């Protein structure tokens, strides 16, 4: 990864000097695509060229030979490099940008075969981006480093350092081993840095394989604890870390690894970071990756923001606000006081509509302060970043002034105090220094406002005057030559020159204009220069160079003043974002009639008139109404379980998820889509869908389902909320039923959590007689002449049937198949009436009593007709049967059952 300046390439047999240089630089950066600068292009060679040409859809060519074979090559123009970088980074690649660091003329002086000196000046990686064009404004861009320490022989803790160098945010936390996957999922990092040992740990292999982040292992020798501490001290210019609070060894290791990686990728540029904030363990609602995916919190199962909860609730008006909203949604709180402070702020902004509107207008005008500040710190900023600082400080002061007089709740008052710390003088200085129209790059000049800097004004005048003098000179020469079409023009090769038609040119050469010096003869024109014109030219060039140099000084001076207050400005950026989030929640609450939830430390979960924000929004677009539903899982000693049966398409999944979303929204500080909600704070949230629903998972879905269910049964506490949707349906009916049954008993007897459980196994509803904290609920349907109408209303009780056939008919299954299925169903139902399995299951002892007395029996304890049907069933391979054979098999099974 490191690169040394290469001017005298190694002697690589058979390679041209340039190719030898390339190979040497590439060898120092083996895990990056190497953008090798050649003139106006970045060229890629060998395998890099093949990867890039495929990824970017650019032509693969060849250049020379190496080891007897053609060298594949492709290239991207330098001025469009950002676009290509963007696409490569989005695909998870890392790119080393290698520049020419000397003038080709200099290289020539060393000898005809010398190669221009080149150096890697930057590594562009997904987790260390700073350019606006490469970043999503509404999303943090996190680099996550992971360290580890042994707590006891059987326990390990992981330190997490999350850094967004595009905003300077830096947080540290430590989690227990089993919590690591959920913690990583919450951060949604773009890139993960860790030691080779953690990377190679077989227990974690799946984590690194499944993550969408780029994973970078670092060698143990580079991650010495002493150098980690030193790096942190150096970053913040402190002698000891004590001032930051106490960090664990794992956290320090993580922070050290993150800083080392940043050092490497930024090539010494000092990245301005805020002091690390430490997050206590358990401070956020633990939500594992599967639950996040299943609830589609920040993206849908197909990976898009559109259709996610985040998209449905986002009413922020600034990029910083949008990022903070996503962060809050990813990590809802567990601390009641902090949640209440957020709710107070929202309530205040709900109550005062005109104040909210003014606030949102002011926030809308505020540019992305945090990202501009970070670019200034890194020396990558342009005039527009300074303007962003000006706009941000102005907005902060305007908001502080606007809210200053009001009686504010504590949460908002604190934010306003932070805004009020904005340096008025600096804001005014930026205001008077910067012009209205600003170029992207400082080297383009013209960004200092006229009247701000006397010397700049003077030099500019000189430049303008010289242009006037050129016009006068042109008029004079035109008169002297008698040629009205004589022009003084400018190009990059000749500079200023006099152009006349061919005939006049000939006359000039013959003595018409003695002071003219011939430069070029064109097809129908001649070009000249003169001493006077040459002098003027150097005056003009001198003046514009001087303006550029002076403007650059102004830029540096302003940057320094800004960076001297970097911490305060970063804090102002955070406060603006927090206000935007509160105002967004308030706007949403007013728009959609959401209410403030009542939160406490009980085990309450009582929701009246609850709705699903995303489904409701989709229905609203289609002009349909969402049916609100109540849900009560409140308990004293332990939570209640609601077992939901009901027809396909009745709304079970929607109902389950909407209740999980209410908890997420309430604990992130938002109001909730319900008429009222009384909620005891939740420590962990689990949501799972039975394998058959979980198409995004691909292979071996039942195994995944069981692994995840195991995690829930092992981790859910009395404070947790568990949502299980059709668990057990990914396997044979009786296996699935038995598993679902045992899981329910475990949740009730062992976990004691609040839970929602949807199922098509109607047999399970019998459990309500024996498990005191389990209630049955169902979704109402109405039948009209054989057709079914879903009312989407959740009511106490048990579904009579699944209405699968009616749904099949609605879906357009051929009428003959539906009719035939009806006949088969009748047959199956009558045999079930004769030999009901439910009665037999009812006789079984409860899970708890079983486990307390003896370990659970190895076989499912349900007595089923499998004893006789087993061998027959084993012989059937459903995937290889034709429909006809399937029907025959069904008849055979029925006949066998009749005999049994
Ligand atoms: N409360 C509601 N009000 C109005 N429409 C609803 C409601 N709940 C669900 N729906 C509609 O019904 C559709 C099916 O809902 P959902 O997927 O939750 O059903 P389900 O019972 O889980 O079905 P299945 O058992 O087939 O998985 C939704 O896409 C939505 O359009």
Description:
This protein has 6 domains: 17-124, DNA repair protein MutS, domain I (MutS, DNA mismatch repair protein, domain I, 3-Layer(aba) Sandwich), CATH 3.40.1170.10; 135-281, 2-Layer Sandwich (Nucleotidyltransferase, domain 5); 314-423 and 570-587, MutS, DNA mismatch repair protein, Chain A, domain 3 (Orthogonal Bundle), CATH 1.10.1420; 454-556, MutS, DNA mismatch repair protein, Chain A, domain 3 (Orthogonal Bundle), CATH 1.10.1420.10; 598-864, Rossmann fold, CATH 3.40.50.300; 865-900, no CATH class. Helix 14 crosses helix 22, helix 15 (369-378) crosses helix 16 and helix 18 runs antiparallel to helix 21. Strand 1 and strand 2 (41-45) form a beta hairpin. The chain starts with 16 loop residues before the first helix and ends with a helix. Helix content is 47%, strand content 18%. It is elongated, with a radius of gyration of 35 Å. The strands form 5 sheets. The protein has a 7-stranded mixed sheet, with helices on both faces. It contains 32 helices and 27 strands. The longest helix is centred in the middle third of the chain and has 34 residues, at 531-564. With 900 residues, the chain is an alpha/beta fold. Residues 615, 619, 626-627, 629, 646, 648-654, 792 line the site of adenosine-5'-triphosphate.
């Amino acid at each position: 990864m490191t690169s040394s300046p290469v001017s005298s390439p190694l002697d690589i047999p058979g390679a041209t000097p340039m190719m030898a240089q390339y190979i040497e630089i590439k060898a120092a950066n083996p895990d990056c695509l190497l953008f090798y600068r050649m003139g106006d292009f970045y060229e890629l060679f060998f395998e890099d060229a093949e990867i890039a040409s495929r990824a970017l859809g650019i032509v693969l060519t060849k250049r020379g030979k190496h080891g007897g074979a053609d060298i594949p090559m492709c290239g991207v123009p330098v001025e469009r490099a950002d676009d290509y970088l963007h696409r490569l980074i989005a695909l998870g690649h890392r790119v080393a940008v290698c520049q020419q660091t000397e003038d080709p003329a200099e290289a020539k002086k060393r000898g005809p075969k010398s190669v221009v000196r080149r150096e890697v000046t930057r590594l562009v990686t997904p987790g260390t981006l700073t350019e606006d064009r490469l970043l999503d404004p509404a999303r943090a861009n996190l680099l996550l480093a992971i360290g580890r320490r042994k707590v006891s022989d059987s326990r390990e803790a992981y330190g997490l350092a999350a850094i967004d160098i595009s905003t300077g945010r830096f947080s540290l936390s430590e989690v227990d081993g089993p919590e690591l996957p959920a913690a990583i999922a919450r951060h949604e990092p773009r890139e993960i840095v860790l030691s080779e040992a953690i990377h190679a740990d077989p227990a974690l292999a799946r984590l690194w394989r499944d993550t969408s982040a780029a994973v970078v292992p670092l060698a143990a020798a580079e991650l010495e604890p002493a150098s980690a501490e030193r790096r942190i001290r150096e970053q913040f210019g402190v002698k000891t870390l004590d001032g930051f609070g106490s960090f664990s060894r794992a956290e320090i290791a993580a922070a050290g690894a993150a800083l080392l990686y940043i050092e490497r990728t930024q090539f010494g540029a000092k990245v301005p970071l805020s002091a690390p904030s430490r997050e206590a363990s358990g401070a956020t609602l633990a939500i594992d990756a599967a639950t996040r995916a299943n609830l589609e919190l920040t993206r849908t199962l197909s990976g898009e923001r559109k259709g996610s909860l985040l998209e449905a609730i986002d009413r922020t008006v600034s990029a910083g606000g949008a990022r903070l909203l996503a962060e809050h949604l990813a990590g809802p709180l567990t601390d009641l006081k902090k949640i209440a402070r957020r709710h107070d702020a929202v309530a205040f902004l709900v109550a005062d509509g005109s104040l909210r509107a003014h606030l949102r207008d002011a926030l809308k005008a505020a540019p992305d302060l945090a990202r501009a500040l970070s670019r200034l710190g890194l020396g990558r900023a342009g005039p527009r970043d300074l303007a962003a600082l000006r706009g941000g400080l102005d907005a902060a002061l305007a908001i502080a002034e606007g809210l200053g007089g009001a009686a504010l709740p504590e949460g908002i008052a604190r934010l306003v105090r932070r805004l009020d710390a904005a340096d008025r003088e600096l804001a005014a200085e930026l205001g008077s220094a910067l012009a209205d129209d600003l170029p992207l790059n400082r080297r383009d000049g013209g960004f200092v406002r006229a009247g701000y800097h006397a010397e700049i004004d003077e030099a500019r005048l000189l430049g303008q005057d010289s242009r006037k003098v050129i016009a006068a000179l042109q008029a004079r020469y035109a008169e002297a030559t008698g040629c009205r079409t004589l022009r003084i023009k400018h190009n990059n090769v000749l500079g200023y020159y006099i152009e006349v038609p061919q005939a006049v040119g000939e006359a000039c050469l013959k003595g018409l204009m003695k002071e003219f010096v011939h430069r070029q003869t064109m097809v129908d024109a001649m070009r000249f220069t003169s001493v006077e014109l040459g002098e003027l030219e150097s005056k003009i060039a001198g003046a514009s160079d001087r303006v550029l140099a002076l403007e650059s000084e102004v830029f540096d001076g302003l940057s320094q003043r800004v960076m001297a207050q970097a911490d305060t400005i970063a804090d102002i950026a955070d406060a603006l974002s927090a206000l935007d989030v509160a105002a967004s929640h308030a706007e949403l609450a007013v728009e959609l009639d959401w209410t403030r939830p009542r939160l406490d430390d009980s085990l309450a979960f009582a929701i009246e008139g609850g709705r699903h924000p995303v489904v409701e929004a989709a229905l609203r677009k289609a002009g349909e109404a969402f049916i609100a539903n109540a849900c009560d899982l409140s308990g004293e000693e332990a939570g209640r379980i609601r077992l939901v049966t009901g027809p396909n398409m009745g709304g079970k999944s929607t109902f389950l998820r909407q209740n999980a979303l209410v908890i997420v929204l309430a604990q992130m500080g938002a109001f909730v889509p319900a008429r009222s909600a009384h909620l005891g704070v939740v420590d962990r949230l689990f949501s799972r869908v039975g394998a058959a629903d979980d198409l995004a998972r691909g292979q071996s879905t039942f195994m995944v389902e069981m692994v995840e269910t195991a995690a829930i049964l092992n981790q859910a506490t009395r404070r947790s909320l568990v949502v299980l949707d059709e668990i057990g349906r990914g396997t044979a009916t009786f296996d699935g039923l038995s598993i679902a049954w045992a899981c329910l008993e475990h949740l009730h007897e062992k976990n004691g959590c609040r839970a929602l459980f949807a199922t098509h196994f109607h047999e399970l509803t019998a459990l309500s007689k024996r498990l005191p904290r389990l209630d049955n609920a169902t979704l109402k349907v109405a039948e009209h002449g054989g057709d079914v109408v879903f009312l989407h209303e959740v009511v106490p009780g048990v579904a009579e049937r699944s209405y699968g056939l009616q749904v099949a008919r609605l879906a357009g299954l051929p009428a003959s198949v539906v009719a035939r299925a009806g006949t088969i169903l009748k047959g199956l139902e009558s045999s079930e009436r004769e030999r009901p399995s439910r009665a037999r299951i009812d006789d079984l002892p409860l899970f708890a009593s079983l486990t307390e007395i003896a370990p659970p029996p190895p076989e499912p304890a349900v007595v089923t007709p499998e004893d006789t049907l087993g061998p027959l069933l084993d012989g059937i391979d459903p995937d290889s049967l034709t429909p006809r054979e399937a029907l025959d098999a069904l008849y055979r099974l029925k006949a066998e059952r009749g005999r049994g």
